[in-house]
Amino acid sequence: MERLTDLILAVVGVPLVLTGYVVAGEMGLRLLPRAIASALRPFVWIAPAVALVAIFLVYPAIRTILYSMSDARGENFVGAQNYLDLFDSETFRAAVVNNVLWVVLFTVAVLVFGLLIAVLADRVSYEPLAKSLVFLPMAISFVAAGVIWKFMLDYRPPGSEQTGVVNAVITSLGGEPHPWIIESPSNNFALIAVGVWVWTGFAMVIISAALKGVPREVLEAARVDGASEPRVFFNIILPLVMPTVAVVATTLIIFALKAFDVVYVMTNGNYGTNVLANLMYQQLFNSGNLGRASAIAVILLAAVIPVLIINVRRNADQWAR
């Protein structure tokens, strides 16, 4: 009953409060001289958004930074000791290496497959069906994707009946089953492949929308002049869609830096597959070390900020044009 009350308050109360704020704000502005009201109106309208950002983003970020310089219970100040302990930890360094693998391999693979499928689908009559099938993994949660592929890649010793689909197919063709999730470093590639399977549809849809904006007259003129299809792609199509590819790449890099769901579900960071987000979870909920978990969160934030700045600057340059 208490949860139902909270739900009703959230669904009904929040819109009512915002509506009341807008009405009261406009009534207050009408009491002021027109010049002052015009100058203050933008600030009145964006004030709720600024307040929400401050409460749910800025304040938690500041608290996390403060906790990262505290002890395990978050009570005593220890300075940079948590960061020093992390950089001295082999587990942390291994997680950083795995995150670099995710950033490089995951981003490149998703962009290549997304671009390739978008170009090929644009040339067939059953384009909507093809895109729907490729995009379908995005409709499920990453936890569900991890569970699906954990069963798909399940391993049993040679001679035993293979319950995993991949190893069952391999053994039916006369091969030996492979411990995809257990054996390092192939398990990292297997986990990254799951992420690629999920995210390729996202890249395909965004890049496909950019392809629709490429002038058909330019493509036809190039083909009439004798340009081969590879040359048309690399000299015309790719440069025109490159701004969209860059935006997609930044989104993928941010996801790769904070990859968690697939790793947590499939291996929980075992067998040399740990990543920073999963290590942060383990430090907080398994080890109860608030300070060290917060330090990892701050490191992740510091890694994501440059990517966000690049993305914002690129969008600003496009708007300026």
Describe this structure in words.
By secondary structure, the protein is mostly helical. The protein has helices at residues 2-30, 34-68, 81-87, 90-121, 127-135, 142-152, 165-172, 186-212, 216-224, 229-257, 261-266, 276-286, 290-320. Helix 4 packs parallel to helix 8 (186-212), helix 8 (186-212) packs across helix 10 (229-257) and helix 10 (229-257) runs antiparallel to helix 13. It starts with a helix and ends with a helix.
Uncertain residue segments = none
* Quantity of strands, as a count: 0
Structural class by secondary-structure content: mainly alpha
Query: CATH homologous superfamily of the largest domain, by name?
Result: MetI-like
Strand content: under 5%
Radius of gyration: 25 Å
CATH class value of the largest domain: Mainly Alpha
If helices are DSSP runs of H or I spanning 4 or more residues, what is the number of helices?
13
User: What's the SSE pattern?
Assistant: HHHHHHHHHHHHH
Estimate the global geometry from the Cα principal axes: globular
Instruction: Tell me roughly what share of residues is in helical segments.
Output: over 70%
Task: Tell me the number of structural domains.
Answer: 2
User: What's the overall average pLDDT, rounded?
Assistant: 89
The CATH architecture name of the largest domain reads: Orthogonal Bundle
Largest sheet: none
What's the multimeric state?
single chain
Distance between the first and last residues' Cα: 55 Å
The CATH topology of the largest domain is MetI-like fold
